[in-house]
Amino acid sequence: MANFLFKKSYELNHFTKVHYNHLWGSRGVFTTIRVYGATPKFILLKEHLCQLNTGLIKMKINFSLTRKKLLELIPKNLKIKNYNHLLRIAIKKNIISISLRPRLKLTNNFNCKLVNYQRTNPKIKNLQYKKILSMQKGIDMQKMELLFFNKKKLLEGSTTNIIMIKDNNIILPKGNYYKGITLNYLLSKIHTKYIFKPISIFELSDADEIILVGSGKGVIKVTSIPQIKWYSSSSKMFKRLSAIYKNQLI
Predict the structure, then answer these.
(1) CATH of the domain spanning 6-102, picked from 2.40.160.40, 3.30.470.10, 2.60.20.10, 3.30.360.10
(2) Is the pLDDT of residue 15 over 80?
(3) What does 153-188 look like in DSSP terms, one character per residue?
(4) Is the pLDDT of residue 1 over 60?
(5) Domain 111-247 superfamily per CATH
(6) What mean pLDDT comes out for the span 220-236?
(7) Comparing C-alpha atoms, which of 97, 86, 90 is closest to residue 5?
(8) Model-wide pTM > 0.90
(9) Second label for 140, Cα 20 to 30 Å away, from 94, 99, 102, 212?
(10) DSSP 3-state percent helix, strand, coil across the chain (nearest 5)
(11) In the predicted model, what is the mean pLDDT of the chain?
């Protein structure tokens, strides 16, 4: 269970504090922002707020969250010397909920499990996550990620996007899924050609590297996928992407 440093909910119109509600299962959207450093830096905050507000428009929720309002809602008396935390923002029609928890430390030997599942309304980071949360309870999230596929075509991780490397080519799944902030940032900085194409789950066996990226996990190298007896044979692109990501933390 997550060890929250704070969790608060507010009524949207006047920002009156109400009983905390995580809002999972509600009709709404959320985003998770990494907070890092002695003086807390909100990693890619502008991009997160833009994507969050775009999701609100698509869900026809008449609200827009600004940086100023968000910072006003975060408690000022947090006794944290060095941040390495995750700030979650969830919004439905009449409530905004925010919480802060420590970021999990991931193991070097990181594995994946293939699961036949596709999120509801997948191109929006929406709150219909109860099925995913239930599946996550069956694994150790510090050691493993769930990789979703539909009709044998790869989609996304339960908390990440997927990058496949084969013969030095960057290949991303083409399909109906959410392309996250971290993925978009890395693709804008890599200065290397990449392609989106349908990736069969059987094609994963031919990958040299499989890399997961997301706000919570950062950039993580997949060591193996036991179901298909796949094992990583390179770290070349992982090292490049990891270096680009770490520049955001400086």
Answers:
(1) 3.30.470.10
(2) yes
(3) EEEEESSSEEEEEETTEEEEE-SSS---HHHHHHHH
(4) no
(5) D-amino Acid Aminotransferase, subunit A, domain 2 (3.20.10.10)
(6) 97
(7) 86
(8) yes
(9) 99
(10) 20, 35, 45
(11) 96
